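Repro case for the chain-ordering regression, as requested:
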Amino acid sequence: MNVETLASLARIELSSDEKTRFAGQLEQILHHVEKLKSAHTEGVEPTTHVLPLANVYREDQLRPSLSNDAALANAPDKDGPYFKVPRIIDPAS
Amino acid sequence: MSRQPVIGLEVHLQLKTATKIFCGCSTQFGAGPNSQVCVVCLGFPGVLPVLNKKVLDYGIRVALALGCSIQEKIVFHRKNYFYPDLPKGYQISQYDLPLGTGGAIEIAPGEKIRIMRAHLEEDAGKLVHKPEESASLVDFNRGGVPLLEIVSEADLKSPEQAHHYLKTLKNILEYLDVSDCDMEKGSLRCDANVSLTGPDGKWGKKVEIKNLNSFKGVSHALTYEIQRQGRLLDAGETITQETRLWDDLAGQTQPMRSKEDAHDYRYFPEPDLVPFSVSVAEIEKARKLLPELPAQRAQRFVEQYALPPVDAAVITAARATADYYEDCVLKTVPDKRALFQKPLSNWILSDLAREMNERNIDSITAINFPPENLVELVALIDSGKISGKMAKDVFVEALKNGQSPSAVVQAKGLSQVTDPGAIRAAAETVIQENPKAVADYKQGKPSALMFLVGQLMKRMKGAASPPVAQAVFKELLDK
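-- result from build under test --
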């Protein structure tokens, strides 16, 4: 995976200076993560959370939604009750 | 060896909970744009999603009914991509630890289609296009509505089989009562993956087809795509692995331009949601609470109503049809039930089924002929008021003007002649006009009697009761 691909996936534009700089920084990060591999993890179940917490639910009960005005208050662009975005070019849907 | 289609279907089922999967906003269809949204489903920074317990319960119910095992550990992942209907820049979905895996459904005796997995995820918003302004409008009411994605293995070998699988799956899902299962409203959606095998039997490049929002669309799109791929391969060209959209009006698939770059979703575990686990006891409890499914109901219909197994299977496939049948039996007077249970089923499987087919109706409830009307019609035949043949006309007439069958019989003066005296004169004329048939009858040919009855029916415009007519002929000819 190179810096250009990452930038394109994240929808950001990078100058050639930035590309070089970020490539170096990402290299360091990957190197650091590589180090973690040397930790002894035998018999330890992989986890994505540090807290021993599981099964946190809510019941299927309605809570008030935002008003339409409040929902759209921070929108860069709107049209009546809708958020407005640049045109999507798919032929259908 | 010719090229074989290899097809897998992904079905998205909208679960009918009152609130969204990770927040308390309503899921009600048809509300004003962006009126059922909050900071969670709009993806504001710093908010926390919390799983709706009912979504997990419904998901488990479906997974168990499809024969899947429930995973010991259920984890949500972020699927990262940019699209304006996705406010967070990622969809909360499941990846390597989905809710259920490894199921199968039987779509015909001995014909099993395997289910790879069933996983939970959130729906995206809805885009409305405004070509004249070169803008799109977004309504996030649907964003965060719970979906269960059901992925089949690539076991399907033809558009017909894919259609049959989808129909069977929908029938099971309807029995489970966790979704409206309405393809037109989008509560049941289908994507297809299709490729062709090469001469070596190996699978070719696969194409994903989206936007299949009807059963017919699924068959048509697959047929089209199989032909398109076949033509390309015949011309020595290669298939591009891509996502294509089905255009129902144009009757063709087209490449989807916005998703040109190879899918790289960079899945990673959703840090805002803890893992979930369901105990064996809970799974067993959910299994016990599963409603009667089509196959079990068919078995019961064979035992309880003495229907032939094939008839029972067809009548129980769709929940609405099976409910209609049981409603008919229930509305029949108790001492006639045993007598009526087969004719009621016959009517549903022939005349009502034909009517649904001709008018392209999906559910028997949409037919303007409630169960009490069918019971009445069968009772009219049973009492000898009308013949089976007349009943077919009465049925058509009753459907057309919304009258009850007895009202039609009354209005049209259709009732059958059962008085031998009224039949005798016509029978005598028929005997005079058909000396050959009479001679045949006297030589012991039983078919000759049927011929004479037929001639009599013609003369009396079908109004004579066939058993009475037979008796009259026998009386006149045997003396």
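Ordering looks correct now. The beta strands of chain A are 57-58, 78-79, 82-86.
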